[in-house]
Amino acid sequence: MNLSYNSSLLDSAVDHLSKLPGIGRKTALRLALHLLRADEDEAISLGESLIEMRRNIRYCSKCHNISETEVCDICSSPRRSAEVVCVVENVKDVLTIESTHEFNGLYHVLGGVISPLDGISPSDLEIDSLIERVKEDNIEEVILALNPTIEGDTTNFYIFRKLADYNVKISVLARGISIGNELEYTDELTLGRSILNRIPFSNTFSSK
Amino acid sequence: MNLSYNSSLLDSAVDHLSKLPGIGRKTALRLALHLLRADEDEAISLGESLIEMRRNIRYCSKCHNISETEVCDICSSPRRSAEVVCVVENVKDVLTIESTHEFNGLYHVLGGVISPLDGISPSDLEIDSLIERVKEDNIEEVILALNPTIEGDTTNFYIFRKLADYNVKISVLARGISIGNELEYTDELTLGRSILNRIPFSNTFSSK
To answer: ipTM score of the complex?
Structure first.
């Protein structure tokens, strides 16, 4: 259904909105009509904030997280431990880990994971710059925090091999049963791993 | 969860996006990050098209449909029958009826329906301007095309009473079984009405 909406301006807004992920033409039309009814200020400042964001946000030259400056706030903060680097797939994972308030080191955003099926090879990712950071900076530990998928595991292993020659501790996120979940509904693979990698009970008391 | 995203620009974009109907903060963040990864042109022209649309779209002074000019394209088209006016609740309904290609008259957008519970009274709607049009213009038929709800029916009846003194035919959208639906799943009220208001079989052959 490629309706024309009597108005090239509405057409154009709907066309643009419907290019967003998960937004079809019907939803795009609903959003556009909402903006037409909404306060003029509200609609215009939405448009302006998107333009401002796209024009001015850059990527940190060190960790490749989004940033408004050459080096991002996390990388340049004196209060973060610069000797621990957490490797994540994308910018969103940085936000997710930050929201736990359990990590006080720096990040390294790969920009994806190795996936031959999608045509993503190690050279498409920020892996070389990670090796460079380990070589140049005084990094003691690299935490691999990729998604627990085949691609994530492959990428973990690739980085592990690449870093084998350097004097750096390499760890990976603990895998096990989710807090609040019931054993009955935990998949066998995860439950099996959580038995193999069981931890001293006393560790569960320790907090930051 | 009111995360801050390390960047006031991203924060602001997410805040604005999450004010849209049906878009929560998680979706807003996904959309914002998509725009950050997307072509700069694409993201900026989305923002610009929203601003352009909100600044330049007005409402037709005659039918209150969206328009880029004082009187909209439909109202000013010489190819439309100016003596038939279809009354609809909102701008979206104009688009929906236009998409059927079965109506060649003009519209009148009420801007809502009478709903005491939501505090919407007849004076909040474009009912007086409809009466005015019937009085001034040479209108022969008013088609009431509001949603078949209690509020829609109330509004239909209110308009019907208001127009009783004028020499104008007042019709309402046919109600009956949907084409392609099975009788078994049609609600009793609709099925009952479609029996009461049955039409000559020969009418079903007629086409525009």
So the answer is: 0.75
